Amino acid sequence: MRHHRAKVGIVFLIVFIDLVGFGIVIPFLPLYAEKFGPSPVVFGLLMASYSAMQFVFAPILGRLSDRHGRRPVLLLSLAGSVAGYLLFAFAGSLAMLFASRIIDGISGGNISTAQAVIADITDERDRTKGMGIIGAAFGLGFICGPALAAVLVSIAHWLPGVAAAMTSATALVLVAVALPETRRTQDDAGPRPPARRFGSLRRVAGYPLVGACLAMVFLIIFAFSNFETTFAQLLRLRFAMSLSSVGWMFVYAGVLGALVQGGLVGRLAQRFGEPRLIAVGGAVAAAAAGALPFAGSTWRLLLVLAVLAVGHGLLAPSLSSLTSRLVPNHEVGGVMGVSQGVSSLARIFGPFWAEWVYGASGPAAPYLSAAAAYVVSVIVIVAARRAVATTEPEV
Asked: Could you tell me which residues come within 8 angstroms of residue 378 by beta carbon, excluding any fewer than 6 positions away?
């Protein structure tokens, strides 16, 4: 990866800048929707629309990046984000809010394409480190975005949406000016099957262990969605925290996760391998998620939250790296797109499940659900570990 540091740095900036825009919008979406008085079902559909569109279209964009190159798909997806954020900024109806989230969801394949760029320019030794850098950019964007939004919304209600559009436009310019095409040439890339959603899923899942990795993607994102959806409610209920304190708790977890993914996971993967990191990270995250609602004091909460951030921070980039190495080079964009689609599916079901069990069974239920999902992911990787060891040299 030493020879491609400039490209990795550019990809980091692109993802970070674009995720700042995403982080600007997300805190205010429910508040913007409330003024139009949607029913609970319509409210739920609005919150799920972005992830639902990503589930359908991210694999298509991934295959298109395999066929036509990474740069055109990044440019297209970032342009869509600009349009979606501008609609959000000036939405005068619930229909316009829906349109903004649908457009951004359809074009939101930039993370999977950025992962494909990292896979293009890294070898197997450095790939987990590269995926960790993407994860760190993702986490830092979510830290900076809400903080910036809190300042801007006090000036004008439309300013956060415009600022989000400007961040994506800046990332678009970076891609156009500074990021060269990284996709392998056609001679090296192999045959290119058509970019169809379920065809991509069936094809990449047919490679050894890829199906298991995709199942783990669903499990860990489902688990984390249970946490992030209800964490603010838990803090208000159990600790009577102010909105400002709740925000700082999210910043604290995000900083820890970014440090793990950006600085620690690559070194550990080189020493221990991705399957071990996935198993250890899943076990650590399961223990922390199960303990989180029972933390009886603020300092205990901070400790458990740190453990959860470390566990998930070890798990997520290791799983992305392993998944990308289980397919041929010409399928990397496709499998990253399918992985993001599966992640989007988990982000549809996770929040709905979390809120339902929170109300039906109490505030501990989403965290016990998350712990169970993390445990199942550990079982899957432990059961597949011997097969991984025999398959990796052949890829």
From this structure: 278, 279, 282, 283, 286
